[in-house]
Amino acid sequence: MKKVLKSFCVIVSLLAGLSSCKKDDGTGWKPDNLGGDKIETELDGKIHTYKAPMYWSVYEYCREAEKNANVAIDMTESEWKRMIAWVSENLLPYGYDMIVTDGFMAMWSDNSEESKGYMTHYGSNKLTDLVKWCKEKGLKLGIYDNPLWIHGDDSKIIEGTGKTFGSLRYNSSDKVLKPQSEDAFPWAVPSHSGCREFIDGFFKYYKSIGVEYIRMDFMCLFETADGAGGMPGKGYGREEYELALNYICESAQKYGVFTSIVMPTLKDNGSLEISKCNEFRFSADTFDGGWGHVSDWCRGEFRPGLWPSTNNIFDGYIVWSQYVNKDTAIPDGDFIRLNTMESEYECMSEITLHLMAGGPLQASDRPEMIEQKGWTWLYQNEELLALNKEHFIGKPLSTDISDPRSSIWFGQRKDGSYMVALFNRDDEKEMYIDFASLGIYEEMKIRDLWSHKDEGSGREIKAIVPRHGVKVVQLTK
Predict the structure, then answer these.
(1) Residue 283 pairs with which residues in a beta bridge?
(2) Pick from 380, 396, 412: which residue ends a domain?
(3) CA 12, CA 3: separation in Å to the nearest integer?
(4) Which of 62, 270, 287, 328 is in Cβ range 3.0-4.6 Å of 266 for a Cys bridge?
């Protein structure tokens, strides 16, 4: 569906009037898979207490099924249990404690009293069954859904109000950017009376069935009706979008649910998303993966206030590093497909980049594909994964994506030691860093965290770094 052209930099239109390097025909998920008054919210500003998530996603399974079968995508109970067992055995011991759904599969509500009109099924499987199967293996379930999507019947009453689900939909009195356009998704309009309660019911429902992670997609389409591969939308504007995020933040914090926002415009340096959500996506979809997703797609391009702001995650992490810290939302570089890489060096670079930048590790390799390559171990580097546990966030030496120094990342750990990563986004070359340029003026012990070897002491690092590889070390006194 998302075709990669046979050129060095794949040319595709992601945004109206702009040229980019990879075609975005959406995520493969279709809207038909979905089955008032402005109120000020009260937020205490203490939502950013989470470390970056580590989990396994169904993304690769669904994308490959979509490409090869061209039929309705689903996973049987036996397939679910096989995936869950593999994650529990191979990833859970290293901190990957959740399985997360994504788009592609039908998402619908049975409109039972228990559902309150919210989503009850992912494909042919009940969400309560998925929660149960995960829990039996020590895992949690995360859900792909959006608190602004209306799943239930329009006649359904919003709990605690006399309003119906249908009353939340667009009407001619709403001010939108493209009134003549159709909406690809059944959006609830935040300013309509009852929407605050509708959103609160969404998070209350998910918490009640054991879900504490929500991945909310297509927010650019809601705000600006743009940046979603040509999908139509009315565009409800900045004010409605901010009100929606206020309601989402309020209820997610109330029930203890982690919110991951996907395809946001990130206008004004992401001021809304970074302050009101727990995690924000900044890069184009992983699609078919490979080094293009990590470093090469439209390298050097940054489009502020438009989705996606960057097409590759390396550029994105560089740019957004200046706006994130432990008191903000977590930067999200999307799903990892190590089996699509050309070498172990590329895999090491991607894992290291996510961890150095404080991003999540969202594995999506199908077990048979990663095991065929013999690369499962790349997800299991406990010395590096320790960075995630302590909520480490490093920074590049430059936030200018055209500056070679942006390929060198640095940060200090809780124990006082330092992390330094020299990333090679090009062909094999010698890389060098003098510790004095990092503000370290004494000799340090050097340990390589991929080879797991001590490399003596010194005041500099000089290394031949393979093509698309990384040299990542820990420095201690």
Answers:
(1) 310
(2) 396
(3) 9
(4) 270
